[in-house]
Amino acid sequence: MKDTDFINNWLKENLSEERYFHTLGTADCAKELAQKFKLNLDKAYIAGLLHDCAKCFSNEKLLEIIKSHLQVEECEMLNYKTLHAPVSAYIAENEFGVTDREILSAIRWHTLGKLDMTDFEKIVFLADKIEPNTRDKEYSDKIRTLLDEGNGLNKALLKCYKETIKSLVKRDLKICLLTIEIYNKLQDIVQN
Fold first, then answer.
1. pLDDT tier, 108 (very low <50, low <70, confident <90, very high otherwise)
2. Residue 86: which H helix or E strand, with range?
3. Cα Rg for the chain, rounded, in angstroms?
């Protein structure tokens, strides 16, 4: 795998300044959450660092990579804002030499999530939503409070899904059925 200096230089060249600042915040936050939940700090940092590496690619380039190299569910194609996640995992593996399946999966699923996410996937997902550099502090503080409770990872995820669904409805956007399935499953987990 390429070292973090190489990765940082590549990210500076290929991301907007704000996206790079978000990426650094996500990497730090993922590492912080990994420590809190006794997961691998180095892996969390790398996953956070690379989670949005394809975010500033054009939609045409994202679609080209998806069609040529990846298998993506139809529901993932409903919103162009989520296309970068599978492509970022592809770039992490092919550009930076990441072979760790846990890192690649966390990058792959950091936008939509998936059913039965591992704790590692959950912390990267959450770090993307609550990092302090570019995310709303009031929202992040609510999520962080939930993380301190029993079953905190699932409670925090459920809160994120609630807010995502509200936002999609408010903006009159389609909702991937996977999002609804994850929300329903988290409701069951949190309420039992």
1. very high
2. helix 84-94
3. 16
Residue owning tokens 């939509």: 112
In this predicted structure, the answer to whether residue 81 has a pLDDT above a threshold of 90 is no
Rounded to the nearest angstrom, the gap between the alpha carbon of residue 18 and the centroid of all alpha carbons in its chain is: 17
- 3-state class (DSSP) for residue 95: coil
Query: Any idea what the Cα angle at residue 71 is, between residues 69 and 72, rounded to 5°?
Result: 120
Q: Is residue 50 within 8 Å of residue 90, measured between CB atoms?
A: no
SS3 state of residue 170? helix
Q: Is 105 helix (H, G, I), strand (E, B) or coil?
A: helix
Mean pLDDT value across the chain:
96
The number of distinct structural domains making up the chain is 1
Containing structural domain, residue 67:
4-191
Note the pLDDT of residue 192. 74
CB environment 131-154: b (16+ within 10 A), e (fewer): beeebeeeebeebbebbeeeebbb
Termini Cα distance of the chain: 41
Contact 190, 151 (CB under 8 A): yes
Token output for 154: 């699932």
pLDDT tens per residue across span 132-157: 999 999 999 999 999 999 999 999 99
Contacts of 49 (CB under 8 A, 6+ apart): 4, 7, 8, 11, 23, 24, 26, 27
pTM attached to this predicted model? 0.95
**Domain CATH code at residue 129:** 1.10.3210.10
